[in-house]
Specification:
Elements: H1 2-9, H2 14-31, H3 35-46, H4 49-62, H5 68-74, H6 77-98, H7 103-123, H8 133-147, H9 154-160, H10 167-191, H11 197-219, H12 226-243
């Protein structure tokens, strides 16, 4: 354990990871989503594909915990259950695929997915149909598959932005769904023997500032300020994706 802690604290790029985690915590606490799109591009430039997933999972599992009781009261728990059912079926396939690719390919994949989804979000692309239980479950499955790249949120984000639910309920659903994704990821990685001790400890260390900034971000949540905050969040996500490109290695 002391050796693993020393290796975790000596990770190249740990300073950049800390900056990404602080920014991600503020975004996640305020909006309920977006943190993985900030952390993963940086993590994938520092760690192996599986190591980046482990670090993200450990950081995100503990960080949002102070905000979960409020999310449990405000969220649509039935919809969250459908999302997680779909995710549980598809996530093992995505993790298997990630475990078979090189770190460079994974880095391009993560940054590419993040940038494409970011462009769609900024452009205002939204699904405009009815949010049926089947559609919600299929969207959860897409999120579970993309969760293997650390970006389980965007398919669900795009779906919910089309709904008539109030912002506080949508935010609560995101918080509950992403916490469930982290639990699923931890279970599947553990069952697959893919938990990396150095990445786990680094994730736990980073969970402390992540939790603090989650609390601060939640305190700043004011629905009428959302447009300004979205612009800042999009800029941070884009910068993280560009910094994480394997091109700079």
């Amino acid at each position: 354990m002391p050796d693993a802690l020393a290796q975790a604290l000596a990770l190249p790029g740990l300073g950049w990871l800390l900056v990404a985690v602080i920014a991600a915590g503020l975004v996640r606490g305020f909006s309920g989503f977006g943190s993985a799109m900030i952390i993963m591009p940086v993590a994938s430039s520092v760690l192996s594909p599986v190591g980046a997933l482990v670090l993200l999972t450990m950081t995100e599992l503990f960080g949002p915990m102070p905000n979960l009781p409020g999310a449990w009261r405000r969220g649509d728990r039935a919809d969250v259950g459908r999302l997680l059912l779909g995710a549980a079926l598809a996530m093992p396939i995505g993790i298997w695929a990630v475990s078979k690719v090189s770190a460079e390919i994974f880095g391009w994949w993560v940054c590419g997915v993040v940038l494409v989804l970011l462009v769609l979000l900024i452009a205002g692309w939204r699904y405009r149909g009815a949010l049926t239980p089947g559609l919600v479950s299929v969207t959860g499955a897409l999120g579970g598959f993309f969760g293997a790249a650390g970006v389980a949120g965007p398919p669900v984000i795009m779906l919910y932005m089309a709904s008539t639910l109030p912002p506080a309920t949508i935010r609560a659903n995101f918080l509950l769904y992403l916490f469930g994704i982290d639990l699923l990821m931890l279970l599947i990685l553990s069952a697959s023997g893919l938990l990396d001790s150095v990445a786990m400890i680094a994730g736990l260390v980073l969970a402390v500032p992540y939790m603090a900034t989650n609390i601060l971000g939640a305190a700043l949540f004011v629905p009428r300020a959302e447009p300004v905050f979205r612009a800042v969040a999009y800029a941070i996500i884009a910068a993280s994706a560009l910094i994480g490109l394997p091109l700079w290695k």
